[in-house]
Amino acid sequence: MQSVKVVVTGPFNAGKTTFIKSVSEITVLSTEREVSDSSAEGGGETTVAMDFGRITISDDVVLYIFGTPGQERFSFMWETLSEGMLGFVVLVDASDGTSVADATSIISFFRNMSSVPFVVAANKVGDDPADLESLRERLGIEGSVEILAVDARDRDSVKRVLLALLYRILESME
């Protein structure tokens, strides 16, 4: 059995916990707490340490999925969770300019941590290729990085993103 560690990262409120919960075959270990940061709009909860889930891809491949906190004040966890990862997903709320701006610095952080493959998952965007290309420009990432539309609530949509990442990981190992 091949175990593959992947990290799901992205800005505050992009949908990381929902993404992991929608696909995990185990009950997700989640460290969500009430939002206490006065700069965060609204209320609700935020991840303060990590989320953890698992999905079996085939008889011989299991993905262990670690979700990061989205707020920069918890960035010490980004470094910890990135250790040993074989790839990562950057989840961004494409309808929120602040989320896109924050995703740019998160991409830079993770690229500096490791040279593993990654994909961008655009939550709250349509399937129009022009919208995805516009997001690419706003994120300032090259054409070789795959950007996929995702509905973080939809298991099949999330699986499609994880499989795209897994294919990139396998290509990088050849």
What is the element string, with H for helices and E for strands? EHEEEHEHEHEH
Q: Helicity range of the residues?
A: 25-40%
- Main β-sheet description: 7 strands, mixed
Instruction: Give the number of helices.
Output: 5
CATH superfamily heading: P-loop containing nucleotide triphosphate hydrolases
* Rg, Å, rounded: 15 Å
Structural class determined from secondary elements: alpha/beta
Write out the strand line-up for the largest beta sheet, numbering strands in chain order. Answer: 2-3-4-1-5-6-7
Q: Quickly name the level 1 CATH class.
A: Alpha Beta
Q: What's the mean pLDDT score?
A: 89
- End-to-end distance, in Å? 18 Å
Question: Overall 3D geometry?
Answer: globular
Question: How many beta-strand segments?
Answer: 7
In CATH terms, what is the architecture? 3-Layer(aba) Sandwich
Number of domains: 1
Instruction: Give the amount of beta strand, in percent.
Output: 25-35%
Tell me briefly what this model is.
It is built from 5 helices and 7 strands, in the order βαβββαβαβαβα. The protein is an alpha/beta fold.
Task: Explain the layout of strands and helices.
Layout: E1 2-9, H1 16-23, E2 29-34, E3 45-58, E4 61-67, H2 76-82, E5 87-93, H3 97-113, E6 118-123, H4 129-139, E7 147-150, H5 155-173
Parallel strand pairs: 1-4, 1-5, 5-6, 6-7
Antiparallel strand pairs: 2-3, 3-4
